[in-house]
Amino acid sequence: MAPLATKVQRAVAAVPFLFITAWAWREMDLDRVVVMQQPYVDSGIIAWEGLDKVSILDHFHNVDFFDQIWRGTMATFSASSFGYDKVAWWQVFSFLIDLGPVYAIWILESRRAGSAWTPVFIPTLFTFAAQLLGIGPVAPVFYFLSFAFGPTASDLARTSARGRKIGHQESGLLLPIILTFHTCEVFAMFLAPDLATRHYWTWAWQLTPVWIGVSNFLLSRLASPLLPKSGVLTSPKSVLVVLGLISAGTWAYTLSSAPFSLSTIFIPVAGTQTEYVAHVRKVFQTDHLGAFVSSFLWLTYSFLDLSVAGLLSTTSLFLNFALLPVVGAAAGPGAAFTLGWYLRERALSSAKN
Prior knowledge:
Blueprint (H helix, E strand, L loop, with lengths): L3 H10 L1 H14 L1 H14 L1 E2 L7 E2 L8 H6 L1 H11 L4 H25 L12 H11 L1 H15 L3 H6 L2 H4 L3 H4 L2 H18 L3 H11 L2 H16 L12 H22 L4 H5 L9 H33 L5 H18 L1 H17 L4
Antiparallel strand pairs: 1-2
Helix pairs in contact: 1-8, 2-8, 2-17, 3-5, 3-17, 5-13, 6-12, 6-15, 6-17, 6-19, 7-8, 7-14, 8-17, 12-13, 12-14, 15-19, 17-18, 17-19, 18-19
């Protein structure tokens, strides 16, 4: 592992991640959200002109902390999931679908031998924190710790090929787990024909990162002897291909069908928003930007790290930098992020020792 001086240098270099966290936290202004959603919490009813009233479910998780803290969140999500903010429906649906690849990559990174007992080793802690605080402020902290204190490309290059790669036993069940606990729930949140069903699945989705992390940890160990050591269906690449295609399909649907410009859907309006719907829209747009700006910054740092370690040529480095914005524009940020991670993995696998 890198010496302490190197870790300090990398931490200093990674300070831009913390700037993203500070920006996202300020712009999201979650204290304002709590105040704005309080009337819904007090009444127990989500109501909007032109929509049926929906009673907020009580004791959904039967854990008082969760049931109380996410009671108001149900009202906050309803602007997008119920569709009374039509702009937010498109943005949040795309955003949550794109989180599938992010969850997968964080978990896959944690299963690399060189990641043991580093901050990357506990991704579920960060994804759970993201459910409470927003992934926009949390993801940059995860990437900061990952880059500063995780294994460097040079560290990984010196390990065995097995130590660098993520085994099929580590990813064999990850795809059905994410599809079950995340992707299907998001589709139900936004596409179910009645609002009560959308409300139910919005509640269910709040603990999704925990169920993904716990299920993958337990089931991958129980099923490890039964999983093949190779095979297309259980490879990490297949996990990302499927989730990336779902993200790309959602992006294509947005491009072809949304009645709003991409800037209207995804770019938050500057300044304080005093109305509930406008502020909630800004919160999710900021959350989205914070998550993926930091994700692509992490890829940038990773590519540069690979170049310094001699695992990525200058030509390949610039090709990667040129390719990802094109893929991002054509297929969306979730698909582009999966491609970037694949390119990183391919470079790591090229190390000879």
